[in-house]
Amino acid sequence: MDAFVYINKLKLQVEAIKREYQHLINHVQEVKVEKIGTGYLKVMITCKKGEEVLMSILEAFDKLNVNVMQARVSCTHFFRMEAIVDANIDATILSEAILNAIQSPT
Q1: Does residue 48 sit in helix, strand or coil?
Q2: What is the DSSP letter of 27?
C-alpha cells in the first residue's frame, strides 16, 4: 500500500512539473538588441513557437529597412533567433518592433 501511495505522489509531481513547463513555454518572450559596431546590431529573440513567428520578424526587419547579415534560428522547445543586422536605427525601436511582431504574428 505504501508503494502505491508513493507512486501516485510521484505521478502528481510529474503532472505538476509538466504544467509548469507548459506555462513557461507559453509565456517566454524576450528580445535583446545590442550594438556591436558602427551600424551593426546583435538581435537575440526567444519566444513561444508559432507558425508565422519567423515571417513576422522578417517583415518587421523589412519595414524598418534592416538588412540581416547573419542569422541562426532554432525551434526545439522555443523559437530562438540570433541575428547580426546592418541597421541605422535605435536599438529600442528595433526591439519594440520585434516585440510587436512576435506578440501578434500575421
Answers
A1: coil
A2: H
Q: d(Cα 42, Cα 39) in Å, to the nearest integer? A: 10
% pLDDT > 70, the chain: 95
Using alpha carbons, list the distances in angstroms from residue 8 to 5, 15, 63: 5, 11, 54
Q: Which domain holds residue 54?
A: 28-103
Q: Cβ(82)–Cβ(44) under 8 Å?
A: yes
The residue count for the chain? 106
In the chain, the number of structural domains is: 1
pTM value?
A: 0.72
Provide the pLDDT for residue 103: 83
Distance CA 45, CA 85 (A): 13
Within-domain flag for 8: no
Residues 19-24: what's their mean pLDDT?
Answer: 82
